[in-house]
Amino acid sequence: MIRLAALALMAACLAAPAGAQTLAQAIADAYATNPELAEAAARQEALAETTEQARAAGRPTVALDAGLQAGTGERGDLTVTGRLPLWTGGRVSAAIRTAEAEVDAGQERLREREAAVLEAVVAAYADILFAQEAERIARIGIERLDRQVEEAQVRFDSGQATLTDVAQLEAQRAGVAGNLADAQAALGRARADYLAVVGRAATVLEEPGTASPRAVPPDLATARAIAEEGSPRLLERAALADAAQARIGAARAERAPNLDLQALGGQSSGLGGGGFAAPSERFGTVGVALRIPLGTGGLVPSRIREAQANARAEDLAVDAARREAIRATDSAWASLGGARQRLAAGRQALQSAEIALSGVRAEYELGIRDTLDLLFAEQSLRAAELDVARSRSDVMLAEARLLRAVGRLTGRAYGDRD
Question: pTM, whole model, 2 decimals?
């Protein structure tokens, strides 16, 4: 499943224009190279073999035994033994049901592991986008302040400004330089996280746009309904509950009769003492073997009670998983709503800050505003730009967490947007 998803995503990425890396490309790289996903897929392949092993207990078996005896003479024996289960009392069918349910649970664990890795991809991608924007904002701020420091120095030399004005601008520039250092450090950490989860160094990442993935539910009620039907953790617990019910049948089958058809055939021949040939003997038998448990010392009833108690526990675990799925969905929905509102408010604040800075600059040149007014306006603009960048990243991460909570966080979720 993971290989097919990786191939599909890579094919979609090949059709995209060259240039900046996209989120879909990052997800495709993670599918192709992430060792955690590969490990989980390999373990699921191993678990899937248990179903075939359970079925093998109800099929015929054949064994060949050969032996050689040495002493006063040499003698060889060749024996073929066959066994065909005719009636197992439900042991084999219960084992098959148990294995199938456990394989289903493993498949849901694989989905959850996949979602966890993809959430980490989205988080690393969003962190890099924010760090890149923070670095850009800090560089632009330093460039502006450098020009303003030069202008203030010229005005100071001509007597139109004070040394305080120059010092205020230089202090503001030093603060922005510290912000630039922080942004560069954060970008380095985000790139390290990206490389670890994606398996490819991040270059310039493309903004995913304002549209949400189509897989994001339109409202909370829909999100809850989807989570109850598709949450990997909930479906895993439900599959484990099915396995626990099957184990009750397996425990009860231990007190049922067991009937096998058995066949034995072979030949023994060799040399007797003194080098004389010993006569060859051929033998063969066919029969049935019946085993009826008459008394187990209370072992079977105890195992039945144990299986029943475990089944009750698994049913309760399903209820707990359902509550957790709803809680995670509600929490993710609230976070997404808050992030969207912050983004909308931040964009409005950014627009106002740009207008305010333009007016303050014009009034500063006319001498109506002082240096503090200009510094405050520029600081407000940088803060608004950072708020918008942070909110965009928060929306990306909140969408991924909501998709994970409802069981829709897959590579295809980011292949189509509203």
Answer: 0.82
